[in-house]
């Protein structure tokens, strides 16, 4: 019995690329997030199914990881140091690219769903998502850790272990909440299927986060016609100041 | 109720913004300070990027100053002639200040320098005002008449001008220099400079306190308008939504402040302003000295393009 199983598993492993391939079919509740003036975050439902032409492999179990990453931006991280009694920004490390938002949802405990090697290969975990060449300072790692710590505190980086629901090893779904403090750009959503820590299938889709309406118009104006935008801001300020003064006078009389 | 700011790219509570605007507006109307030294740190605290906070704060100060100056004009407590002379010096000073700011920026640690500037100037001015106004108040309570202001060397300088609203006949040089000095500091510290201007006018130029407030506001309108335009064109960090929310609270506050200011005695007004200035100074000084909770700071230049 055991022998048959081993042979079966072996056969599966060898035949992986060809016959027993498990592919992901991905769906998003919305592939566009519109930032309007009253934008207060958004929840994205990521769902999908596993497509396969062979029977469901029995063991090891199927695991799913979902990542959502905001635009990558270079950063500078400063560490404060006390000099002459006051705290000043001393050492600095440049981080080449760190996502402005990063959420990872898994179907189980981290150690069970993906191996270290696969994490390195696909840059799935939060520390792997930050690309830093930063060798200027010896403990560059503590600077990267600080970025993660600060952004986890503010809810921009999140590890959601066990938040992906899998049904019958075929259907899966998870909800990722995008915070209110989003920046514009393409939010890449990746799905990884793993068995025994190895990635056996992956796919990705893009959620487009855009300002709309007045937000869009003002943002563009400030970039394309800065002088006009400045004058507009000033006139509004002067008009508001005059308006309030006139209104108060009218009330008093 | 949340408001998403298109330039700052953060979402903030609208009620909180209106509250901050109103509070700063009241101070502006009462004391003739633009409120930049309060609004900028408050916006930082709310999580708004520093560059946006500074630029938008300037825009808000324009509105509350216009509102307050109109109230002061009706009470004839603006010395336009003095304001114009101060402004002439101020524009030269702020151009110089911007140049100095960029030079310091190239050297690094500009943030620290700005903060130190705040602590030193707020501390010195606040302490001086507090001591002087408490003494004046005590004298007034004892029934003694306050001493006639000692003009001293200010009266010996050439290019004399008559400032009727202030009841002064003095050289144009001291106001020009005061304007220029305040302009430099205003550009470096990212504020209108009222909190420096007001005591300088009282103690250096010997202007009557009632006129000082309106005149300072008059000058602040132009300095902050200039700053706003400069920021809109160069750093593109003026957030119009943020400004409007602050303005809506601010213009109402400024009117309330002007009414309150007219009811309080000059000495009381000065004590209150002095206490406020000293308070902000202590807060900033503690931030520099106490061990911060988070030793690391993330800084990035704007959003990805």
UniProtKB/TrEMBL annotation, chain A:
Tell me the first and last residues of the signal peptide: 1-20
Enumerate the UniProt keywords alphabetically: Membrane, Signal, Transmembrane, Transmembrane helix
Could you name the domain of life of the organism this protein comes from?
Answer: Bacteria
Question: Pfam families this protein is in?
Answer: Alph_Pro_TM (PF09608)
Q: Work out whether the entry's keyword set contains Membrane.
A: yes
The UniProt entry, under InterPro entries, shows: CHP02186-rel_TM
Q: Where are the transmembrane segments?
A: 227-248
The name under which this protein is listed is Membrane protein
Organism equals Roseivivax isoporae LMG 25204
UniProtKB/TrEMBL annotation, chain B:
Q: Which chain regions cross the lipid bilayer?
A: 12-39, 51-73, 85-106, 112-131, 176-204, 211-234, 240-262
Compartment list = Cell membrane; Membrane
Can you tell me which residues the record assigns to a coiled coil? none
Q: Which Pfam families match?
A: TauE
Principal localization? membrane
Describe its membrane topology. Multi-pass membrane protein
What's in the GO CC field? plasma membrane
Question: Which keywords has UniProt assigned to this entry?
Answer: Cell membrane, Membrane, Transmembrane, Transmembrane helix
The record's family statement is: Belongs to the 4-toluene sulfonate uptake permease (TSUP) (TC 2.A.102) family.
This protein is called: Probable membrane transporter protein
Please give the organism: Roseivivax isoporae LMG 25204
Give the source lineage, highest ranks first.
Bacteria, Pseudomonadati, Pseudomonadota, Alphaproteobacteria, Rhodobacterales
